[in-house]
Amino acid sequence: MDYLVQLAASPTAWIALATLIVMEIVLGIDNLIFISILTNKLPQKHRAKARRIGISMALVLRLGLLSTIAFIVQLTAPVFEVFGQAFSWKDMILIAGGLFLVWKATTEIHHSMDPEPEEKESTSNAVTIGFAAAIGQILLLDLVFSIDSIITAVGMTEHLPIMIIAVVTSVIVMLVAAEPLAKFINDNPTVVMLALGFLIMIGMTLIAEGFGAHVPKGYVYAAMAFSAAIECLNIARRNRHKRLLAARQ
């Protein structure tokens, strides 16, 4: 109790908490974009449930990993070398996650451009398989993003309560933002393509970091913000054009 009181009275701790919350929310954007795109492919009645399960499991994974910080820190230790390049478990997880993200985003782009004919299956069977597959893929990416999130938290502060508060806060923000973001993506088809492009960029960033090439996340998120701002202007222009047509008619 004395430890928590001292921590609460420390300005440095509050600064670290605020900084870490912002970092965790920014890192959670990647996770949330993937969840939104994937769940939008499910039938309407299953989407909200899948989003809640996916984000809830992200919280469970993050809190579970926080309880094994000593093990998580060891993931950064080199395991083997290839041509002088050392690889740790964290590197291999980032590379695998990045490859999966690039593959999934590329597959979704291909499907959007050249959709396959619908399979002749019963509706209930298609829904069950689709829901299970969506949850499985969400959990896989949750694990990758959770490890990256926790390692970032460990690098920014040594106080476990600060890490827990930051992680829980970021997941709550994800829960609140999930429905509006998914609806926005679903209502604007061009945004889907932009978001898939973001996922490819994020996947390549994970792969690069896995191979030891540090990519400043500020550059990545600045590019994403610029692209999103341009798309917002395009959406505003299209909406204005629709209103003018409606007024003339």
UniProtKB/TrEMBL annotation:
GO terms for cellular component: membrane
Keyword check for Transport = no
Its annotated compartments are: Membrane
How does this protein lie in the membrane?
Multi-pass membrane protein
Report TM segments. 12-38, 59-80, 86-105, 126-147, 159-178, 190-212, 218-236
Q: Which InterPro entries match?
A: Integral_membrane_TerC
Instruction: Kindly state which keywords UniProt assigns to this record, in alphabetical order.
Output: Membrane, Transmembrane, Transmembrane helix
Family (UniProt): Belongs to the TerC family.
Report what the protein is called: Membrane protein TerC, possibly involved in tellurium resistance
Source organism of the structure: Pseudomonas rhodesiae
Q: What is the lineage of its organism?
A: Bacteria, Pseudomonadati, Pseudomonadota, Gammaproteobacteria, Pseudomonadales
